[in-house]
Amino acid sequence: MMTDADLPAWAALATALLVVLGAAVTLTGSLGLLRLKGFYERVHAPTLGTTIGTGCVLIASILYFSLVQSRPVVHEILIAVFVTVTTPVTLMMLVRAALFRDRAEGIVRDVAPRPSSDDQGANASEPKDRFS
Fold first, then answer.
1. First CA to last CA across the chain, in angstroms?
2. pLDDT tens profile 100-120
3. What DSSP state is assigned to residue 112?
4. Domain residue spans in the chain?
5. Which one-letter DSSP state was computed for residue 43?
6. Which residue in 79, 72, 39, 40 sits closest to 58, CA to CA?
7. How far apart are CA 119 and CA 17, in angstroms?
8. What is the pLDDT of residues 58-110, one digit of tens each?
9. Cα(49)–Cα(24) distance, integer angstroms
């Protein structure tokens, strides 16, 4: 078993770069969540940041622990598979639920709104725009 002091310089540098890159991509996704205006835009940035950032950190972990423990590490591969599968699925479920809600409320422009008893005249046929 190897100690941290016996870790080759190239492995330490590659591990450090991958961890910093993963943190930077995740931070960028989080900033996108704060800066973007609409729900559909805001949900996209953290999803990419989480998937790519977690992937970089997991690759760094695989590299480090494979060299230190002299055996392949399977835990990180399982984590990568679960994150890669669950993050886009969660994104799709959230977007579809929001789209269903927006269509039901008549907010989406390509679907006519449901008329209510308050709506009369020319304004009744115009769709409401949530983002303006």
1. 61
2. 988 888 876 654 555 566 555
3. P
4. 9-110
5. T
6. 79
7. 59
8. 999 999 888 888 777 888 889 888 988 888 898 899 999 999 988 888 876 65
9. 9
